[in-house]
């Protein structure tokens, strides 16, 4: 049987070690005023080397990220393109009905951005829908260039049908509906951007 005796020096050693760790950790958070100025000054070559190494590391990380990026195609980005550019195209309804082809020509980019933003997903069905929408858009813009009002009206109607652009809600309780909640929502400042205020 081995007998162990209480040795106060072991307890003291543990207390000293704990205090040393506590003060070492606290010195890391000490204000820089207490430290000497010489530790802050870096040589010009040291800074250049550090910046080059940092830029190289970020370049490797950014390069790897760019290789696997998908162009940020999601349900949200498609809905955003459909909402923003679709509402601009839908706003041309009166201009087309009145034969104002100049207004349609001014919104040429809305048709282009609608087709490129809404039909971005992969697949045969999506490609077929995009081909129909682009063909209808091209027919409309060609009629506008020629000054063919009847052709523009027919092509505009065809585009709205193919693109399935729905009119915003116009019910009697529209003033009591909530279409968006922040300025970052795509519906903000569009006809779909209703907000209920008590």
Descriptive account of the structure:
With about 200 residues, the chain is mostly helical. The chain contains eight helices and no strands. It has helices at about 10-30, 45-65, 75-90, 95-100, 100-105, 110-120, 125-145, 150-165. α3 (about 75-90) packs antiparallel against α6 (about 110-120) and α6 packs antiparallel against α7. It starts with 7 loop residues before the first helix and ends in a 35-residue tail after the last helix. About 15% of the residues are buried. The mean pLDDT is about 75.
Write the layout of secondary structure elements.
Elements: H1 8-28, H2 44-67, H3 75-90, H4 93-98, H5 101-106, H6 108-118, H7 124-146, H8 149-163
Helix pairs in contact: 3-6, 6-7, 7-8
Assembly state of the chains shown: single chain
Residues in β-strands, percent: under 5%
The number of helical runs is 8
Rg of Cα set = 33 Å
Defining traits:
198 residues; mainly alpha; 8 helices; elongated
Short description:
The protein is an all-alpha fold and 198 residues long. The protein has helices spanning 8-28, 44-67, 75-90, 93-98, 101-106, 108-118, 124-146, 149-163. It is elongated and about 105 Å long.
